[in-house]
Amino acid sequence: MKAGVIYASTTGNTEAMAQLICEGLRAGGAEAVMTKAGDVSTSDALAYDVLVLGSPAMGAEVLEEDEMEPFFTSLENSLSGKKVALFGSYDWGDGEWMRLWEDRVRSAGGTLFKDAGLIVHLAPEGDDIQKCKDFGKEVASF
Of 54, 68, 136, 142, whose CB has the highest number of CB atoms within 10 Å? Predict the structure, then answer.
């Protein structure tokens, strides 16, 4: 299984999560390719068996607006039947940005991993490090 770990990160927190998730994917036997959202085309992204998408919460709990929002919008109408796992970091709020993103994946017909994304407050530390690795390992068998 080939997983595309495609993310946006403004402070490095979501990028750190992406790296840990890639470790877990590889430990689970998947091939993981990590790319920034601004550096991958929609067609290349859709070629992966599973999309593992990451974004920090921004502003009033929305997706990162410079790279992830335009990227996700470009592939949103092509998600029907596609396996998608979501992850991201936040500083404040209650995770609304993730719930809205999950709803968008479901509305587009995507199959959402565990029916929920993985969120971490700020940088992955302590137990969050293992949670990210475990998330990747579980996605490897999705």
Answer: 136
Question: Which distant-in-sequence residues (6+ apart) come within 8 Å of 42 by Cβ?
Answer: 71, 74, 75, 78
CA distances, 84 to each of 60, 113, 140 (Å): 24, 6, 12
Containing 21, the helix (H) or strand (E) segment is helix 13-27
Mean pLDDT within 128-141: 98
Can you tell me whether residue 141 is helix, strand or coil?
A: coil
Yes or no: say if 88 and 17 are a contact pair by the CB < 8 Å rule: yes
Supply 88's token pair: 């991201």
> Which of 128, 130, 103, 126 shows the shortest CA–CA distance to 116?
103
